[in-house]
Hints:
Layout: E1 6-13, E2 23-28, E3 33-40, H1 45-67, H2 73-97, E4 105-114, E5 117-123, E6 127-132, E7 135-138, H3 145-151, H4 157-162, E8 182-187, E9 193-197, H5 199-202, H6 207-217, H7 221-234, E10 241-248
Antiparallel strand pairs: 1-10, 2-3, 3-4, 4-5, 5-8, 6-7, 6-9, 9-10
Helix pairs in contact: 1-2, 6-7
Calcium ion binds next to helix 5.
Amino acid sequence: MSMPVLVSAALTDRGRVRTHNEDAVHADPCMGLLIVADGMGGHKAGEVASALAIVRMREVMEKALANDPEPDTHTAGELLKDAVQAANHAIFEAAESDPRYSNMGTTLVAGLIMGQHVHVAHVGDSRLYRFRDGQLECLTSDHSLVQEMLDQGLYTPEQASRASNRNIVTRAMGLQAEVEVSLQQYPLEQADLYLLCSDGLSDMLDEDTIALTLHQFGDNLDKAAHCLVEAANQAGGRDNISVVLAVPGKAGCDAD
Ligand code: CA
């Protein structure tokens, strides 16, 4: 097994209201790949969509990195984007071919920590935050109705946080043969901590609470992930809650 590029923790929880968990999480410390997907669709289709997104992304990334183990920064971002596009297509095809899965979809946020950069791809309202020098910053901009209204000045942040339409996404994976993927890259700095989450976390906890938890427990990512999920449940747990945490550049996975 290759050397770990990060130490990570991944946790998903049904929450206190929903009857099942449609979120899926993934963290591969050796590949540097982190994913949160928040599925949607009738019956159990949401779970199928979010799980399929992760399986397909992994397959594509593994194959690409087997061919090119040390891609340059631009290529690494393109690989990540291609993997998201392949996952979108896999969900779309599954939904087209089986009536039980018609119209299933998922949001997705994926981080790829490689070399000196973190690459971030997202579709929908799952988020990636960076915790650096005690400051929490959201690096993704939701593809949601509320975000569009914020951008146009039609909502204040206060109105947005209370809006009843806050869960309406304007982009999702699996609904069409191709999807528009937002891709960004940022240079890593020592002691950065990255948080990927579904809206079941970011809707229940304000950023100050998230930052305080990361400040207190950031040296133990498993504990920090449990504390975040617990806090979201204590705040009501109205939706499935998913958290992936990662710190680059530390030995983390079992190397045997
Ligand atoms: Ca959700």
